[in-house]
Amino acid sequence: MEFTFLGHAGIALHLGGHHVVIDPFITPNPAAQQLGLRADAVEANDLLITHGHEDHVADAPSFAERKEVTCIANYEVALWLKSKGANNVIPMNHGGVITRPYGTVRMVNAVHSSTLPDGTSGGHPAGFIVESNGMRFYHAGDTALHMDMELIGRLWKPDWAFLPVGDCYTMGPEDALEAAKMIQCDRIVAIHHNTFPPIALSDDRKNRAVAAFAEIGKQLIFPHLGQQIAA
Ligand code: NI
Ligand code: MN
Fold first, then answer.
1. CA angle 115, 3, 207 (to 5 degrees)
2. Pick from 1, 9, 99, 156: most CB atoms within 10 A?
3. What separation in Å is there between the alpha carbon of 113 and the centre of ligand 1?
4. Residues within 5 Å of ion ligand 2, judged at the Cβ atom
5. Confidence of residue 82 (pLDDT cuts 50, 70, 90)
6. How far is CA 86 from the centre of its chain?
7. Distance of alpha carbon 231 from its chain centroid, rounded?
């Protein structure tokens, strides 16, 4: 198993031949353009969307209209994707777990907002726990630090977590350290930073965060766009 950082909050999980793409934001991302990364070159079987904001759904319709792609999102975002031409949707909601060919997908809480680009309601924002072959991946979506993370640590202890660290719209790296403790996860991948000026982190702040994680035996990784990491 491995995963690829697609930029911003975008992650592709490669689970024994199944590709699970979460929150792809590639086409409007100048950094992806510079690298020549194209959304249509990213393989996908399942598309998971955490909430309705533009920087999480911009590329979603182009993935959703592929015949082989199944979209998994909250009810409101799933219906919106259907209206944009999605072939297969599985609407779900917080607390639900669905079985997929590679394992399970659980929808968990996130503290944020979720209006869709056309101004309609994107329901409540979410995170996901994807489990495959005993390995658990937690994508927090856009979120503040919140107490439900204690529950994630108590019940599911993810092996890998993708946490937003860019501050302003989500938690910053200092709160992400508290989140890592609460979810009882030692391998954290930093997402949702530096794409736009309000979420830019200085090198100094990144370095201090990496050191603070290391001090308690945890790894904070700032992957470069397109980097593939073995899980
Ligand atoms: Ni958002
Ligand atoms: Mn966002």
1. 80
2. 9
3. 6
4. 53, 55, 142
5. very high
6. 20
7. 16
Residue 114 CA to ligand 1 center (angstroms) comes to 6
Residue range 175-185: average pLDDT? 98
Q: How do residues 105-141 score in pLDDT, each as one tens digit?
A: 999 999 999 999 999 999 999 999 999 999 999 999 9
Is residue 213 very low, low, confident or very high in pLDDT (cuts 50, 70, 90)? very high
- Output the pLDDT for position 70: 98
Residue 136 sits at φ, ψ, to 5 deg, of -115, 130
Is the pTM here over 0.85, yes or no?
A: yes
Cβ contacts of residue 202 below 8 Å, gap of 6+?
A: none
Question: What would the two tokens of residue 156 be?
Answer: 């599911």
Domains of the chain, residue spans: 2-223
Q: Given CA atoms 207, 145, 50, 180 in this order, what sign does their dihedral have?
A: positive
What pLDDT digit, counting tens, does each position of 18-35 carry? 999 999 999 999 999 999
Distance from Cα 207 to the centre of ligand 1, integer Å: 25
Phi then psi dihedrals of residue 23, to 5 deg: 45, 55
**Residue 86: phi, psi to the nearest 5?**
-65, 140
Q: State the CATH architecture for 2-223.
A: 4-Layer Sandwich (3.60)
Packed helices 203-215 and 173-183: angle between N→C axes, nearest 10 degrees: 20
